[in-house]
Design goal:
- The protein is α/β, with parallel strands linked by helices and 194 residues long.
- It has one domain: Glutaredoxin (3-Layer(aba) Sandwich).
- The strands form three sheets. Strands 5-4-3-8-9 form a five-stranded mixed beta sheet. A two-stranded antiparallel sheet has the order 1-2. Strands 6-7 form a two-stranded antiparallel ribbon.
- It is globular, with a radius of gyration of 19 Å.
- The termini are far apart.
Length: 194
């Protein structure tokens, strides 16, 4: 009898777990300014070399733009690594890959060197861009990482922007763990150069 009760409890827990796991995750709603069809809101950032950049410099080039939390986040690092594997394909079709991060330039340079490709890392000083875009997570950096990376993080987002500066695709991560695949982002980019 006791084995039957334990079995029923185990099956119930398993079924509840499956229901929770399969339930669609809603995540964060895409901020109005980042919805497809809108022009990319203008912003400035710093290059790896400390040079001031403007989002207007993207004009004329379809771009995949990733907003990432930093190299302390294994999910962001995996997404960046995955995109670097397709860097040549992106540039061969006339596209550009820009990674925007609120983390220090020293960290950004290390990540760029680690992947050995020349895609653009843009530093969002003081998280001004992610705050303006509605992607800021206050106190989102895990405790042990705060000393090096500060308190605030970015909600991961992926954009595909056409040569006229209009957002054509936006995907915010539903959770901190998920990211759109590089294949999906490449498909969206290829639609702009077809």
């Amino acid at each position: 009898m006791q084995d039957t009760i334990i079995g029923i409890i185990a099956i119930t827990i398993l079924l509840v777990g499956i229901i929770i796991w399969r339930r669609p995750s809603v995540g964060r709603e895409t901020p109005a300014r980042l919805k497809p069809g809108n022009p990319l809101p203008e912003f400035t950032a710093l290059s790896e070399d400390g040079e001031r950049l403007s989002s207007n410099s993207l004009a004329g080039t379809p771009t995949v733009m990733l907003f990432v939390r930093g190299n302390w986040c294994p999910f962001c690092s995996r997404q960046v690594e995955d995109m670097t594997a397709h860097y040549k394909e992106i540039t061969d079709i006339g596209g550009r890959l820009v990674i925007v991060t609120p983390k220090p330039l020293e960290t950004t340079r290390r990540v760029a060197e680690m992947y050995g490709v020349s895609f653009d890392f843009w530093l969002d000083e003081d998280s001004a861009v992610v705050s303006d875009y509605g992607l800021l997570i206050e106190n989102g950096v895990p405790g042990k990482e705060r000393e090096q990376f500060g308190d605030n993080a970015v909600w991961p987002a992926s954009l595909v922007i056409d040569a006229d500066g209009v957002i054509r695709f936006t995907e915010l991560s539903k959770t901190i763990m998920d990211r759109p695949s590089s294949d999906k982002l490449l498909r969206e980019l290829k639609k702009l150069v077809a």
